């Protein structure tokens, strides 16, 4: 069933409190593969803050089969209610507290949208954020309706011996003569219905315990497919470390007697923070040295932490409406980033987070899908689980902390927890806590939540040799975005220092904070020598694009001598970007692509010094990606020219550092047992970066080294890195290497996702034919979100030359695939469709092909609300 083509716009300015509030919800679910019966009794009362007269009680629904409705145990006559595809309207409801009981029937096996109650490999599970509960029962499905829940789950004992719900278990037993059993769960903390969850199935478990700082003994369980229990060990370790860290860093102890995590293979998102019962995509739970890379381990650690941290920032304090989504997601991303920084290398984590922000959020901010961190309007809320809400939202929290200081930030967080525990809060209430704690006026800073776009800050130096005075003239501007043609200045924290021969290491290590809060501002620094090179936006102190008047020599100086690790990395990235932009233009003009001797020498130095911080060195020797270059060019983009320019520069650098790369590769070889710790992961990362340089410099010799590593590696990180090097180099052993890998892992779905994804990004003319063949592979299923994202999403998002083929065939392939997916899973279809978000930046030929494809999709009459929203906004 598809919703009406003209979906209404929901606006923040039109928010109204609910007409009725819920105090308690009793749910009885009798699980059945095709006819699950759901009985929901809600204790309702008129909202004293309501703005209407309560003459109608409007409940949300979606594809529900209504069986009965009663008030205080008395059936409601048919004339007293109306049912539409999306609403149940109760006429003249009581104007005093009453019990509303609704019975519905749902079909979990037919629920391919994976929202509401569905089955994944025989396991019953739920996904209710953002609006999935309305697919279970008619309800006030909005986050500001918070209630205490008690859930009874009944199922066939053989089919689902494990029955889990929110909160604490209070009762269980068998039902005589039926072969069925039940379990009752009670959650004492008020929550919105999007946090409701149940699981029923036959799963294996890893169990452990944790004693909180308050002395509570918590039973921990991670439930996975039987036979894979050993692969959940790292997730359990990460969970326990997350619980302890939240106590130490934020003073937040866990508040229930049990904490359960369930891993399923069919899931639209990464994970879901349901109170006391987190449900995860199994790719973020299962890990072993044989099947998971270092990146997988780091993601498991981060996502386990993220969902657990939601217990306070998202569950105990929810958001008043979905416009405030960043209040729980941006804040919790900030918290999980801090956790990972403490668990691993803070400087490396910061670089990786900024790379992610630029590759996803900066692109979003620059295109037709741009929106503020707190959107002002939406048609489909599922399309606003974006990098802007999550990653930019986290950057806003980070800036807030930098502006008011650590002490005031800690006091503000404590005040927020104390004042709003049990509330559905707003951004204004959140910022008010920090304004009170710091004594600062944060109203101008709040503009970060309401204004879309990435500010561009230009910095010009003016030096007076006679006065020994340096002035930095800073100017900020933000380009227009959809619905916001005019932009006001943002409050931008600028962390800065200076590096130079005369400043010395002590001065270079000094970081000061300036605040740019006007369109133009001049900073004056007395007693400065002429060679002092400014190191600006240290630690990436603000999510801006910085245009600095630094020479190539200045950048190389910062790369060598800056005490800020982020800016050491950034300096090399900026230098490489300049070379790549010039080289891209040369290719387009019919001239040879160019290299850079200074850059090659810097890479040599990093390789030689890599033992001090191998993870940093591995990041620093990696050039900006092709999509990074396209983002910086911003208009008239030719993906083929970028590809040639980057490939040429990589080969030039590889040839210049070949001997050093071979030495590094040999020196980092180890026969030690695999460990996912940060230092070991860093060493593997640098060794594999060296292998990539070797094969670029000498394809034959490099391929031999890579193939041997593929064959003999004792961990997935090294094995998959070797395969990737071979595949991207296009050497003769590529097909043999792919076949070897497939034969080894054909029965492991998560590893096969890597195999599919790797081939999807091969930047060669035959890529589209290869992807088409892979869609016919026995292991491929377009209905599985992980598999669809790996192959179709990988091609669309990470293969810029072939997705953006000049003949438009790449666009057509993705469009046809998305339309097929949309019939069953609109959320996955809509997310893959965002690959078109930068189509207006392409050169005219490709831009025309992309526009034609988008228009073709928009003209379809049976699009889901999710997909139509993305297509129409992308077309603008």
Can you describe this structure?
The structure is a single chain. The protein is of the alpha+beta class. Helix content is 41%, strand content 21%. It contains 28 helices and 31 strands. It has an eight-stranded mixed β-sheet, with no helix packed on it. It has a five-stranded mixed β-sheet with strand order 17-18-19-21-20, covered by helices on one side. A four-stranded antiparallel β-sheet has the order 10-11-16-13, with no helix packed on it. It is globular.
Structural class by secondary-structure content: alpha+beta
Number of strands: 31
Judging from the principal axes of the Cα atoms, what is the shape? globular
* Cα Rg: 28 Å
Distance between the termini: 26 Å
| Average residue-wise pLDDT | 96
Quick overview:
With 876 residues, this protein is of the alpha+beta class. It has an eight-stranded mixed beta sheet with strand order 6-5-9-3-2-12-15-14, with no helix packed on it. A five-stranded mixed beta sheet has the order 17-18-19-21-20, covered by helices on one side.
